[in-house]
Amino acid sequence: MKTQFGNILLRRRKELGFTQExxxxxxxxxxxxxxxWERGKTMPDILLLPALxxxxxxxxxxxxxxxxxxxxxxYDDRYKADExxxxxEPNEMCYDILRLKPPSQRRLVLDMGCGEGKDAVFLARCGxxxxxxxxAAEGIAKAKWLASQHPTAAAExxxxxMLEYVPQQEYDILFASGVLHYLPPERRGAILQEYxxxxxxxxxxxxxxxxxxxxxxxxxxxxxxxxxxxxGELFSLFADWKFHRCEEIIFDCVSxxxxxxxxxxxxxxxxxx
Length: 273
Ligand SMILES: C[S@@+](CC[C@H](N)C(=O)[O-])C[C@H]1O[C@@H](n2cnc3c(N)ncnc32)[C@H](O)[C@@H]1O
Hints:
The protein is α/β, with parallel strands linked by helices and 273 residues long. It has eleven helices and seven strands.
């Protein structure tokens, strides 16, 4: 059975490009021992943890899945108001999901960076089992309230950081809208690979990312406060998936009071193996 420790170790090792043999050699152990830790068959001796954490450039707390207390985020202030900051209209990718993988059988959706939960609650109302997480406590509180207004809809929410969270079960659909620019560029591939791993064969990823194009001026208010993706970068991380939609759009936006444009890459991809 997989353990949180095993998942974290595997993710961190892959992020750093280390082999099991490399870790084993540094700790004077066999590669099989590391493999067993990652597969949740055994746990390391507690006295090895500081050296393992140093090697993986992390802390023993992080290795054991003990997360820091999350601070307040800019979104907490935005989500405090009664009205829904992003409105209640579902994102259009929800309709791709409905069309491609209708909830005619039990299907589990994970909404990363779910904000105030409008998309997860919409999908739950359509018949999916939806789970959403976000870093903003106010967003999670709003999402839970929204779900409570639809008691027959199966939607659950919790607070987590997508940079650290390790999915604990398999999902049919991974959904993330307007969120992935918060992944640091150098960790995007490794982190998305971990999320890809938790999708069942035949499942979908429905994702969008803000990208930069040389002919579109940056927005006046620096609202993309994470990092833009390169045009096409998202698609390249799903090269061995089946693409149902792979699109780049340019759209107008008036946030901050000034008309400007954004470019977004949209991907709906199915896991084949
Ligand atoms: C532009 S909003 C999009 C919210 C929602 N997906 C929607 O479309 O309504 C970005 C969201 O990402 C969340 N976020 C930012 N960094 C995050 C992280 N590291 N882990 C989880 N959520 C994060 C923010 O709190 C915010 O709710």
